[in-house]
Design brief:
Number of strands: 3
Distance between the termini: 24 Å
Order of helices and strands: HHEHHEHEHHHHHHHHHHH
Strand content: under 5%
Shape: elongated
Helix content: 55-70%
Length: 391
């Protein structure tokens, strides 16, 4: 077990690298936890609407003003147009409604009077537009019901019309949330395990490549040649050590997920995240084995880690969510194991019921990663045999 022990001796000397990538994972994971917690609750806000009334405050005019005030924030602005324009420019008010003279009488007489509006291009102004338009549409609809043969509203029907408008606008639709998914926790888990793609790849490729390159040192190779130990035995011991190191690293990151993410990791979705990360870790170990078989220059390892770990993480959505990436980038990412790992994490976050049909969405991705691992093992064995012949 000489090669096996030597593997971990070299690993111990380079433990700072593993610690560094683990700290990066914890730092970004912790940052994401705080970001998610701060955005878990949604509170509806009222827009700032200013009403400039040029009519008598009675009837439908008074009711419109009361409706707007009841659904908006009060705004105190000087009674002149320059002050209103400044307030709109500096977003002190989002929507200004000008009610013209004789609006109440014109409305009751069946005339379609347009309200003058000033607005800015914000989400609040759009909401304000919806509020005012809702009132106007409702009022016009009831006017059609209560008008007489001349198209006018009598004083007797005016009160009924206003009552019906308020009754309709006071009704709210009840929304029942049928989904039982803890989307906030699942979002945390997805972000964490997506970022694990970078940490595992970087740590494994760097450490394993560094260790394997040490074994290909000419002095070491000469000692192996004169010893009774065969290359097959050495390769077997190095493979076992590589697998043990990979499992140890994977186990640490899984334990960290329980600490950082919490109870969602005790659910079936949490188990799927763990299984998916395990398969990817084994795939990453074979990638590290292949790179270690090819690269013998220790100075080139840093560059290779950046290309493989950072490159695949950026292309496949570990740092930037997949839905934000261009289609061209995602098409290129299909040739990388990280794409199938991260894609599976994204799908797990949407699974409410875990059954055969839902598992069919993620099992193919896991199977692809296993195929990648087999290919990398074959390639690393081929490269090793070729190099031994050359030596």
């Amino acid at each position: 077990m000489t090669a096996f022990k030597t593997f971990f001796k070299i690993l111990n000397k380079n433990k700072f690298i593993v610690i560094m990538y683990t700290v990066i994972l914890i730092a970004f994971g912790g940052f994401n936890m705080q970001t998610s917690d701060s955005s878990i609750n949604f509170t509806a806000s009222k827009p700032d609407i200013l009403v400039v009334n040029n009519d008598e405050e009675k009837g439908i005019t008074k009711d419109l003003i009361d409706y707007i005030k009841g659904n908006s924030e009060a705004v105190n602005i000087a009674d002149n147009e320059e002050a209103r324009n400044d307030a709109l420019f500096y977003r002190e008010v989002h929507y200004i409604v000008y009610i013209p003279e004789n609006y109440n009488e014109d409305f009751l007489n069946g005339k379609n009077v347009n309200l003058e509006i000033k607005t800015c291009d914000t989400a609040e102004s759009s909401f304000a537009e919806m509020l005012v338009s809702r009132y106007i549409r409702t009022a016009n609809s009831y006017r059609e019901i209560y008008k007489d043969e001349n198209g006018k509203i009598s004083k007797e029907n005016e009160e009924k019309l206003i009552s019906k408008i308020n009754d309709t606008l006071s009704k709210n639709t009840e929304v029942e949330i049928t989904s039982k998914l803890d989307t906030n926790s699942l979002s945390k888990a997805t972000f964490y395990y997506n970022f694990v793609n970078y940490s595992i790849l970087a740590a494994l490729v760097y450490v394993v490549s560094l260790i394997l390159s040490s074994f290909r040192n000419k002095k070491i190779q000469r000692r192996i040649n004169v010893s009774s130990t065969t290359y097959r035995k050495i390769n077997r011991e190095l493979l076992m050590a590589n697998i043990m190191f990979s499992l140890w690293l994977w186990g640490i990151y899984v334990l960290l997920s329980f600490v950082l993410i919490g109870k969602i990791m005790f659910t079936i979705q949490g188990a799927l995240y763990i299984i998916n990360s395990f398969i990817f870790t084994m795939c990453a170990a074979t990638i590290a084995l292949l790179i270690g078989s090819i690269v013998s220059n220790k100075n080139a390892i840093n560059g290779i880690v950046n290309v493989i770990a950072l490159g695949s993480s950026f292309l496949c959505g570990a740092f930037v969510p997949m839905q934000w990436l261009p289609d061209t980038v995602l098409k290129i990412a299909h040739i990388l194991p990280s794409f199938y790992y991260i894609s599976t994490n994204e799908k797990i976050a949407t699974l409410e019921n875990i059954d055969v049909s839902s598992l069919k969405e993620i099992i193919p991705n896991m199977a692809v990663m296993v195929c990648f691992a087999i290919i990398f093992v074959i390639l690393s064995n081929t490269v090793s045999r070729k190099k031994r012949r050359e030596d």
